[in-house]
Write a structure and sequence with these properties.
single chain, 318 residues, alpha/beta, two-stranded antiparallel sheet, 7 strands, 12% strand, elongated
Length: 318
Amino acid sequence: MLLTKKMAVLHKGTINVTSEEGVGSSFTISLPICRKKYSSHEILDNTSLDKYETLAEESAEQNESHPSLMLIEDNNELRQYLDHYLSKNYNVSSFANGNSALENIKSVMPDFVLTDVMMPGISGLELCTKIKNDIETSHIPVILLTSLAEREDIIKGFNAGADDYITKPFDIFVLNKKIASIIKARKSIKEKIIDKKDIDSNDTTLPICELDKCFLQKAISVIEENLSNEDFSINDLVAEMAMSRSVFFKKIKAITQQNPHEMIRDIKMKKAAELLKENKYNIAEISYMVGFANPKYFSTAFKNFFGVSPSRFLENEI
């Protein structure tokens, strides 16, 4: 009833009820059909609709580089509408219930999850909790979409690990902006992670859950402990993290926007720059300290990363 009332008000209408004990209740929804009741941006004419359909079709043909989004909604009409609209900017995988979504999430491995709360089978809250408590999927942002608008319901959503909570009825443009904003925030993590020697689980500047902070903290620690080991490989790192190679690559890429090779390179280069600034070691010594057996190869890698050679970098610092 709350959702119905919101929808009626949103369309400038009213909802009334007549009730007779022992007989039942009758609800009447009245919606104005006069165009004067609505502002211009609230009216979608045939021309706008045709343009919208064309843009959606064109976008669907060129979406290979778009982020992937898992949509879970048991209402067929709403699911189809959201799928159609969001497909302009995302590769959408749609599911009618939480059980099927949970069964497929590790094979789909989406960049984002948008789920209803009240559904057959496991609820959106349960789904969110399972996603956030599994190390393989804990990095995936989740927005809960629901008609439950009470304060207690919203708190339950965030306690389940949700990144945001949107009540129905909602503005589709606001929803799209929220999704884009969360994805953008995730993309800003890379420099914050590489520049930090220690990732604090209480650090609120990193928009990731505690489980992922611990995961990154361990990965960076393993890399730093083996910084001078020229034989240290990705396979060694994966073994230390006790994860499959494919899952590790996907998770690192999702959190840092880098593959593990790039992450190790960045940590090595940032450490080399720190050592150069200390002015205690020569370039050859530093190359060995960050795992390069050949100082010439180190100098080339350093220049590719910073745009200047180690010697010029040192001159600039002095």
